TrEMBL record, chain A:
Keywords: Iron, Iron-sulfur, Metal-binding, Oxidoreductase. Belongs to the dihydropyrimidine dehydrogenase family. This is dihydrouracil dehydrogenase (NAD(+)). Residues 332-361, 366-396 form the 4Fe-4S ferredoxin-type domain. It comes from the Bacteria. GO terms for molecular function: dihydropyrimidine dehydrogenase (NAD+) activity; iron-sulfur cluster binding; metal ion binding.
UniProtKB/TrEMBL annotation, chain B:
Transmembrane segments: none annotated. It comes from Hymenobacter qilianensis. InterPro entries: 4Fe4S_Fe-S-bd (IPR017896), DPD_II (IPR028261), FAD/NAD-bd_sf (IPR036188), FAD/NAD-binding_dom (IPR023753), Helical_ferredxn (IPR009051). Pfam families: Fer4_20, Pyr_redox_2. Residues 27-60 form the 4Fe-4S ferredoxin-type domain. This is FAD-dependent oxidoreductase. It comes from the Bacteria. PANTHER family: GLUTAMATE SYNTHASE [NADPH] SMALL CHAIN, GLUTAMATE SYNTHASE [NADPH] SMALL CHAIN-RELATED. GO terms for molecular function: iron-sulfur cluster binding; oxidoreductase activity.
Amino acid sequence: MPDLSINFAGIKSPNPFWLASAPPTNSGYQVMKAFDAGWGGAVWKTLGVPVVNVSSRYGGVNYRDKRLVGFNNIELISDRPLIDNLREIEEVKKHFPHHAVIASLMVQSREEWHQIMRDVTSAGADGVELNFGCPHGMCERGMGSAVGQEPDVLRTIVEWVMEVAQIPVIVKLTPNITDITEPARAARLGGADAISLINTIQSIVGVDLDQFAPYPIVDGKGTNGGYCGPAVKPIALNMVKNCAQDPYVQLPISGIGGIENWRDAVEHILLGASSVQVCTAAMHFGFGIIREMTAGLEQYMTEKGFHTIYDMVGKALPNVKHWEDLNLKYKVTANIHEDKCIGCQLCYTACEDGAHQAIGLREGTRVPEIIEENCVGCNLCSLVCPVENCITMERTDDGTEHLTWKERTLAGTIPTDFNDERAGGLHHWVPEPTAALGKEKHKTLPGKARQLGTPASVVNDLVRKE
Amino acid sequence: MAEYLPPTSEQEFHANFAQLKPRMNNTEALYESSRCLFCFDAPCIKACPTGIDIPQFIRQINTGNVTGAARTIYEANYFGNACGKVCPTEVLCEGACVYNLQDVKPIEIGRLQSFATRQVVESHKYLFEPGQPNGRKVVIIGAGPAGISCACELRALGYEVDIFEAKSQPSGLTVHGVAPYKITNEEVLAEMDYLQAQFGYRVQYNSPICSRPDLLALEEAYDAIFLGIGLGKTNALLLPGEERENCVGAVEFIEQLRREHHQILVGRKVIVLGGGNTAMDAASESARLGAEDVILAYRRGKDDMGAYEFEYDLAKSVGVKGLFNVAPVEIVGNGRVAGVRFIRTATVDGQVQALPGSEFVEPCDMVIKATGQAKQTSFLSLIPGLQLDGKGRIVADAHTYQTTNPQYFTSGDALNGGAEVVNAAAEAKVAARGIHHYLSAR
């Protein structure tokens, strides 16, 4: 049985799954319920000077019939008095001494930071997370992402906190910045014990087509919110990786962004996270999802022979390279397994219109065929194919050659002028532009109704002839 | 034990004849439309006789443009709602869905289609209007799927259109001949009202055209005549005892059923003669009317039946039993039907042969003959120069459906010998274009 427990910058937790600072950690009631369900830790809904929230706070992005592939909120930090929160933190810790309770904090002055650090420490919090990420509302008041976007300010505030800190300090970073490693380095320089990322991404989640207003709508108006949910995972993974690979950051990372199952969590961990935080998925499906997450993680670790989380932290990092270090000699070609093909021809139209015209249709069958000499191995067909393992990408080079852009640059063999003979696509067949006209129009605009034309178009044709 | 008790009220009738393709709610339509792959050169379109751009309308439903979806459907097929419910989608669009090849349930195209069309029909959201009047007049005989479809298209092209209908309602077999569990009368007629309100053709009901003087008057008053007359009564079997009480034709039985619902009387033990889709319908309907035993008797083997497999499965599912390789030789009884004398048969080299000495009587108290409909040859002989083929079908140009009398055009069962509503709808659109071409060139 693998050991799921972690010691994250001194914060101990029975497993790496924490609830992120958000509505699910608004109260002691919710946090106790979550721990009872199996969560390892919880980052308390951000404490500070209590706010007043608007009604109508969340907006969702649905994809076809799938709800909340993206989620956004315009809710602010805790609107409950600090004293109530402190009392409940104390009570939770009494019931769950071995679970991690981390207090998320957001205040302004040095005195306030010192005061609230002392308050949460004496309430029994295992650590604190400085909220330098909130991208809506609070940033307009000079807090949240306004801090995270200014590395010097961030460092100063971290230094204030460290002056009194007796428990581990995590700095939560905003992704609303060009280079995430800059605030991460500032956190390190300020003396922080760990970082967590990403906070939400500034967003407009959708526009109401009748009211002409952004969601969520507050009395006919809206504002930008913070974006999260499954759709943000790729952005989060990249930023986690950037921080994990940066030689000047070197801090434990709590990964946040688009985690709703064990796979998402493992991905964050393989790219350098050693704890993970979840919010949207818990808001969507409730705390019960933790059962699948821990079970899946255990199963994966058992199959891979990982005894502890730390056996896998950052394991994918050596394989994340800069583009210039990738092997230009590596070639893959698409292969359609005819026995599995159902003839939807999505690969055909995707390659034809969206890639390199490397798939053809044949008379008498709906199974498309790869035109190997045109195939650049882009993967597009295999991505659009609805049948599992129907289109596979097969390696076609012999694996003996290795040449990167960096090496070509050093050797002076890269294209350097606009019409360079060494252009990668120079000898690749491209159809004449006019060959596009009318091609398969009857197939892309199908239906007999269109072939017949509308009654109005028929009448107009006759009028023109006359 | 019968699967169904005889319905004694309209409510019980509708319970016994519950819709096979019930209306989708918004959520179901969203889920189902989300599954569509949006195939390139989609097989479902090719399988649809009217060539509806199915992936397009499904995508429109999915993006919340239900009105646009209905327009896509109606542009191709004026019987868009009816066809969504009565089409044999299992062998047409849904049968062609690529999901079948993956052993995944095909998209429920028929139900999605009706989901979109019913919304515009019920909300009276009009999508079409008549074209600029061109001063020409066309008369249509028969307000069935062919006649109504042709009328809509001609009105859109600017023609004045009059329809003469022998019965009191439009839509022909859609309301009189389709099994009630496929579509209700109300739903059929609502679509008819919806079409007429938009296109403004005139229909005269209870106005059969049956004599040479009738036709002559039309020939003189109109520029072209469209024959949407369908087929006639059930073919006579020419068997002894056929005239006995409770020996009825399937077409007549179904028409009465659609008109009278639970008030129709069905036998306790019914024998349906035939192996086509109408036979399957009559058998299913008898069972749903509470007949204790329903036997489907066919002179060849099970696999030789003309009916779609899913139609036979449907009949079996309500308790209908098959009796194969038997030919009726006499309807026995004393005034009323008391049974059918059959002789066993064998099919040798494609020919049905009776096996001497194998006769037996299968008792019953009702016989439904589903042995095909007669062609309206005597009426058609009143039209000068109109040729019929060897099977009594009207001969017409394949691209214009102009008959051998140039003033006459045709579509539907009278042309194709008996097919689906969707075939009539498809052909009638082409015929309307044929009429337009013919009259524009004059």
